[in-house]
TrEMBL record:
This is DHA2 family efflux MFS transporter permease subunit. Keywords: Cell membrane, Membrane, Transmembrane, Transmembrane helix, Transport. GO terms for cellular component: plasma membrane. The chain crosses the membrane at residues 12-33, 53-73, 85-107, 113-131, 143-162, 168-187, 199-218, 230-248, 268-293, 333-350, 362-380, 467-486.
Length: 512
């Protein structure tokens, strides 16, 4: 039996399990704090703009460091890189738990983010290296448990904790898990991926930070501040110019910080396009559903989180199953079925009303998540399979960066669409009411007038949400059309053997 065959039968499962735990708590922590922001505002006496930086700052650090993760993964050993990242995350979590003032809490979130930004690309890169192409679907499907389930259960878990405990409990429950993962990594982790003696181009890092950071900040602020705000459009313009300069510089470099030439591989390029579109469609439900159930229907935050929990569970259960189906049937069949379900359920969401039953919302949302569980990981894995092994760090960094950017852009665009439609609908409803109003109704009490205005606002907001879901349906439809062009990647045997032999030594060390 050849060495490469023995590798394929003995991936470093212990190491991957440790990486899984680290990545899970890091991603969970990203969405865990959103529900707690009002409580933090009260305790530290800060306004909404300031407290929002706990989420925005976390996202910006991710946007700056994830593009650089390709360099870190190639330059430093897996063990040292993960221990450093987990140490930063653990220190940040501890500081957040004991933060006496808001400034310390903000710094703690930044430190957390600097650690978590490296974990996902590192885990994905190890998975690609450790498993052969024909077994990658099942492995990456299990990886989907981390990428999909953690952010999905975050709002539900945090809603329950905030109702029963202090917001500090959000960090207290993460801290022991982070410490345990750090200790395990110190004693158990070994290296899987090969290192390269490359140098970091400082100017590229600066351009990347300004480019990706500017776009993330600009688009994430647009939904709240409006597109005509100076900070919004100026940061978007500066970010776009810096990003263009960054891309041109990378294309001229022999050893770039982030390799954009991987887009010459058609299936990777297609997978990136589909995953960007899907990220926007996914965010539509995550943004719009809480607004609908809490603001319009008056359902509690806890019940709002519980509404989404079955969908999160279904996605978690389906991820490994989808991975095995990917190994057997490929990405195209799964993507077409999943995107068809996503399009249909998105359309039905555009028809919800004031009377739609809670149980109907749960079923519809769960079925939508079932459809999306069949798309993201198979499509991404199929694209990454086409890359040579030495380009895996760049592929994983690119995918994670684009998901951050597309999430911010998608959120901003969908919120803008909803707000504009709500304003227009409110004006039309008010005009219709005035035109058809009984003269005696003009003498209504202030309480009756306020109630009438609230009903108009709720109906207008519902119309805005319905229209935005219709736009989301069209967006998902674009992804469905793109899915018809997916082809199953079959790695050339000679190239595969060459790639496997390049990692045989390090992988055998990791499994000892």
């Amino acid at each position: 039996m050849s060495k490469t065959n023995s590798i394929q039968k003995k991936p470093p499962y212990g190491m991957i399990f440790i990486l899984f735990i680290g990545a899970f708590v890091a991603i969970l922590n990203e969405t865990l704090l959103n529900v707690a922001l009002p409580s933090i505002m009260v305790e530290f006496d800060v306004n909404a703009t300031a407290v929002q930086w706990l989420s925005t700052g976390y996202m910006l650090i991710n946007g700056i460091l994830i593009p650089a993760s390709a360099f870190f993964i190639q330059r430093f050993s897996d063990r040292k890189l993960f221990i450093t990242a987990m140490s930063l995350f653990t220190v940040g979590t501890f500081l957040a738990s004991i933060a006496p003032v808001f400034g310390v809490l903000l710094v703690a979130r930044m430190v957390q983010a600097s650690g978590s930004a490296i974990m996902m690309p590192l885990l994905m890169n190890v998975m690609l290296t450790a498993f052969p192409v024909e077994k990658r679907g099942a492995a990456m499907g299990t990886f989907g448990l981390v990428m999909i389930t953690a952010p999905a259960i975050g709002p539900t878990l945090s809603g329950w904790l905030i109702e029963n405990y202090s917001w500090r409990m959000l960090f207290d429950i993460v801290l022991p898990i982070a410490v345990l993962t750090l200790v395990l990594s110190i004693f158990k982790l070994k290296d899987v991926t090969a290192r390269r003696a490359i140098k970091l181009d400082i100017f590229s890092l600066i351009l990347s930070s300004i480019g990706f950071g500017g776009l993330l900040y600009g688009f994430s602020s647009a939904g709240d501040k409006g597109w005509d705000n100076l900070y919004v459009y100026s940061t978007i313009i500066v970010g776009a110019l810096a990003l263009i300069t960054f891309i041109l510089r990378q294309l001229r470099m022999e050893d770039p910080m982030l390799e954009f030439r991987i887009y010459k591989y058609p299936m990777f390029a297609l997978s990136s396009a589909i995953s960007i579109v899907i990220a926007v469609a996914l965010f539509s439900a995550m943004i719009l559903m809480p607004i609908y159930v809490q603001t319009i229907r008056g359902i509690s935050p806890m019940d709002s989180g519980l509404l989404m929990l079955p969908g999160a569970i279904v996605m978690g259960v389906m991820s490994p199953i989808t991975g095995k189906l990917f190994d057997k049937y490929g990405a195209k069949t799964l993507a077409l079925i999943g995107l068809t379900i996503t399009v249909v359920t998105s359309y039905y969401f555009s028809k919800i009303s004031m009377e739609t039953a809670y149980s109907s919302l749960v079923l519809l949302y769960t079925f939508r998540m079932f459809g999306m569980s069949m798309v993201m990981m198979p499509v991404i894995t199929n694209g990454l399979n086409q890359l040579p092994a030495k380009e895996y760090p760049h592929g994983t960094a690119m995918n994670n960066t684009l998901q951050q950017i597309s999430g911010a852009i998608g959120s901003a665009l969908l919120i803008t669409v909803m707000n504009k439609r709500t304003e227009t609908s409110a004006e039309d409803l008010a005009a219709d009411l005035m035109a058809n109003m009984d003269p005696s109704a003009a003498q209504a009490t202030p309480e009756a007038t306020a109630e009438m205005q609230q009903q108009i606002l709720n109906q207008a907001m519902l119309d805005g949400i319905n229209f935005t879901f219709l736009i989301s349906t069209l967006i998902a439809g674009v992804a469905l059309i793109l899915a018809f062009f997916i082809k199953r990647v079959k790695t050339n045997n000679e190239e595969k053997k060459k790639d496997e032999e390049a990692i045989v030594g390090t992988l055998q060390n990791a499994t000892e």
